[in-house]
Amino acid sequence: MSAPLVIPEHVLQQAPWSISKAGVIEKCSQQYDYKYGPNKIKELTVYQPATVGVTVHKVLEMTLDGTPVKTAFQHAIDQNNLTLNEIDEVKTFWDQIDRFTKRMAQFQTKHGVLPQNRFIERKWAIKPDFSATDFFDKKGLFRGVVDFAMLTASKDLIIIDHKSGKEKELKEFEAQFRSYCLMALAKMPDLRGVQTAINFTLTDKLVWNPFVKAEVIRDQYRPWMVDYLTKSTVGLLQPPVPVKGWYCNYCGYKPICTAFGGTGRVPEEAKQ
Question: What is the pLDDT of residue 81?
Answer without folding.
Answer: 84
